[in-house]
Amino acid sequence: MKHLSMSVAALALVGLSSLASATVVVNQAITEAEVRSAQTAWCKALVVISQTGATQGQAAAKAMAERVIDAAYGYQMGVVLFKPTLTVAPQTFRTTRAGALAYFVGGDTNFPKDKGFALNGWTACESKSAAMFIAGNSASSMGHVMITDKAGKVTTVDKTWTYVKDTAGKLRIVVHHSSLPFGG
User: Fold this and answer.
1) Which residues contact 176 (CB under 8 A, 6 or more apart)?
2) Residue spans of the chain under pLDDT 70
3) To bridge 82 with a disulfide, which of 94, 110, 115, 126 should be the other Cys (CB 3.0-4.6 Å)?
4) Cis ω on the peptide bond leading into residue 84 (within 30° of 0)?
């Protein structure tokens, strides 16, 4: 009987070890480095859209902005809570891809006040986080983004982003709030 118990125990261990080797682990945890990388990529993309507009025109900038939005934002996952810096009621919030695209490059009659924020001749952009809150597959950061125009003037905006990972493990912006610092 003792021999039989050991054989069953040995079989159980073999079964568990093969089960462990077949286990697939999906870890969607976000790291600080990924958040910083996403912020840097967003800044670089803003400058590229601006330079594309300046050298190739609005249509080329629009095509570039479409690629950037599709790569960085989570519109394919659902609603994105996007509040750009210089929007006004009744179109303050841009929960659709079309609204985000209009903000960045203008040219959409559904958003007649949008002139194309990304087309303002930006030559540099830097993001500095004041703080980050990372909880598993969600990360939020807030801080400043400093953007430089072609005359060398730096504009600082307050920025809050929230990221989640998509099914491919890529960070997606699902909250983007931007505003000018209070001057009072």
Assistant:
1) 73, 80, 81, 82, 83, 84, 159, 160, 161
2) 1-21, 25-26
3) 94
4) no
Q: State the CB neighbour count (10 A cutoff) for residue 121.
A: 15
Q: Exposed, middle or buried: residue 21 (CB in 10 Å: 0-12, 13-18, 19+)?
A: exposed
Q: What is the pLDDT of residues 71-122, one digit of tens each?
A: 999 999 999 999 999 888 888 999 999 999 999 999 999 999 999 999 999 9
Give the span between the Cα atoms of 122 and 43, in whole angstroms. 10
The answer to whether 34 touches 69, Cβ cutoff 8 Å, is: no
The predicted structure's pLDDT at residue 167: 86
Phi then psi for 60, rounded to 5 degrees?
Answer: -70, -40
Which among 164, 162, 160, 156 is positioned nearest to 177, based on CA atoms? 160
Rounded Cα gap, residues 121 and 149, in angstroms: 5
> Which of these, 100, 101, 94, 171, lies nearest to 140 by C-alpha position?
171
120 in Cβ contact with 106 (< 8 Å): no
CA distances from 149 to 69, 116, 155, 170 (A): 21, 14, 8, 30
